[in-house]
Design goal:
The chain is an alpha+beta fold. It is 14% helix and 30% strand. The protein has 13 helices and 49 strands. It has a seven-stranded mixed beta sheet, covered by helices on one side. The longest helix has 20 residues. The termini are far apart.
Amino acid sequence: MDNVNKLTAISLAVAAALPMMASADVMITEYVEGSSNNKAIELYNGGDTAIDLAGYKLVRYKDGATVASDMVALDGQSIAPKTAKVILNSSAVITLDQGVDSYSGSLSFNGGDAVALVKDDAVVDIIGDVPTPAGWGLDVTLKRKLDALVANTVFNAAQWEQLPKDTFSGLGYLEAPAEPEVPVFSCSGAKIVPIYQVQGAGESSPYVPEGAFESEAEVTVRGVVTARGESLFKGFYLQEVKGDNSPYTSDGVFVFLGEAAPEAIQPGVEVCVQGKVKEYFGLTQIDIKADKKFEVGAKGEVPVAAPFYVADGETLAQALERYEGMNVALDAGSDLKISRTFSYDYAGRRNNMLVSYKEPLMKSTQLYPALSAEATALVKSNLENQLFIESDYKPANGVIPYFPDFNVETGYIRVGDQLTNLQGVIGYSYGAYRLVATNTITAGDFIRGDDRTDAPSVATKGDLRVASFNVLNFFNDVDGGDTNPSGSNRGALTLEEMVLQRTKIVSAITAMNADIVGLMEIANNGFGEKSAIKNLVDALNEKQTPENAYSFVEITDADKYDGKYFGTDAITVGMLYRGGKVTLAGAAQAIDTPEQHASAGSVTRTKDGKTETNPGNDAYQRHSLAQTFKIHDESLTVVVNHLKSKGSGCLEDWANFEESVDPADQQGKCNAFRVSAAKVLGETLKDVKGDLLIIGDMNAYGMEDPIRVLTDFDASKSDRDIMTASWTTLDGKVFERQGSKIEKGYGLINLNTKAHGTGTFSYSYNGELGNLDHALANASLAKRLVDIEDWHINSVESNLFEYGKKFSGDLAKSENAFSASDHDPVIVALSYPAPVVPPKPEPTPKDDGGALGYLGLALMSLFGLQRRRR
């Protein structure tokens, strides 16, 4: 016997044992098992007289039970003839039509529960088998068919129609009431207002009074549909065919429906609409959501996309305002460059791309000191120089709807590329202009700026190369690696991901050809056979010649935390070197960095007359690693650093009421804490003998306080103080109870700035470029500089090409160096020429007389002169 027949047999047996009524006019006609507490049972009186419900109640057979439990007693209720009554859960959020008879009670059934109407403990009607199969009736509305209005004591599924979850329409009626006829809207006789008049030449429509958000009266406009909006902007875009030929007014406008437009409204169709003009968070639109006043006309051609350009003397934002709501095309004259390649936009909560006019955006504090007039002006300028490139629907992971050939090898997009031949409509949301693409493009539509290179140009320069490389959480947990102090894994989630990440890192370091490599974000799991650094070096050396093989620097046992680790964080810094090129000079030095500890209630802040005390605060940053090398007879000390991140807060952020917002000085959170670390580094290293090079991810841009403290800051020439953090400790002892003012920098030289000026970058964040990764040198090393390069393999690439698959879907990956990390490596080429060995003295001829003797002396003299001249 199959399961269905078994269940039917059980149901009949149970029904036979239940008390029954011969007939009944009252019955169950609808069952609603909706979300949360949205539960309802509709009862119907099919008789000709009212029925008193005294003695009636609703019961349920919970989760397959054969004995019912009470839910709602209906004493005191009645049902009029030929009428329905709705019994609701008292917490249901269900809106019934006016006039529907309803009653609320403790209705508490779920999927898997049969529900019965009983009178005096005898079943009148039932919905669901007893016992009830698991999951039956879950997340559905069941409505009794009109040809089956007979109460049954045994459930008959054929009598019921299944509707989607949370279907409430018609509840309280056997047949849904007829919708009142809505007169068909017509523009006939209405005064048509040109779209360009609605838009006007200003930032908002002249039809919207100053200080208001919508027009006082409705306007009627007619145009041709250029695009439908079904997800990002819900409605459609209308455009005048001819317009007013003025570059100052837009010929297009967005019509807001609040839902996808009817199928009849398609690109090329003429549509007339009537509604109020609204300024919706900066977007001029005509709102017809409530009344749906539109009239569809004939279908023709979509208006030709207008070439987009920025006029002399205007910002990108001002130019976009002139085209708001219009169908535009980007061409070479548009001069729009990729400023953030296709990746996740946290404000819009979707993947998209950012372009800017003429060149990518630079972080203000990369170029200028924080809060300077120049930095403040650049922040404003950057905000006015952004256009987001969108698709209407949120794209699937790893897919660019308007660029179907997107791929890691030939269909890549890099920051600095110029975008051409893309068409779309201009909208505005989340405080920014957005172009919603309406066509597709190919790789040939990107004009490459700084294209990929297989190796940095500096890879063969100088006598010695030193590199800094943040390796984006290289963890070997999934390859049997040792644990770190936190026990967490911030890196690859599968062995496949880990091998790909390692392969990409190896590809990058091999191409860099650096003799010393500082690493950041490598797992802090010791230095043994199962450590991440050993795992990486072993894979790296498989790609090196024996003379170029790498080793790693290991700190002394005395410096190891818990006898194994370098500090207490999950990640740490590391250092690789080629023993064939440099020699270790003494043991590595661990440089402790400050911690911040302020117990709850130890600090106060006041705003608007209200004073409050701090919650407990504990902040840490990773220790730095110093190692001295011998090159020939010269001494070089390299220090690898990874200072506190900008994302997590410190005590000063709380004190400035900036714990939940970006600090106003544009330097990110924990800036003063990083200054404290810079002070410790400066004091520790100021007396180093020989050459000194400080490298690493400092989490500070080129003109931010920590870099200025390590380089050329002078308080007497600054209109703004630089302060260290308060409540800091160092090596378990009080370091600074109160923050101190920095008077003078430590005089190191920023090699990137020395060679290339301040406009360099190794990192991209929110569409802005800058250097978080630095190479700072003392004067003697700076004289050895041959060249320095940020090799742009990561910051300008899409992070969808990185090793992780979480956000990239089915996008194929590559083993090449591009997107090996999110930071570019910084490579420094230095001059360390081999010492010149003086020649051995020539023996003096015994016979200095005669022609042969004189000839020999002459030849020696001539040879020596020529040698000196060379």
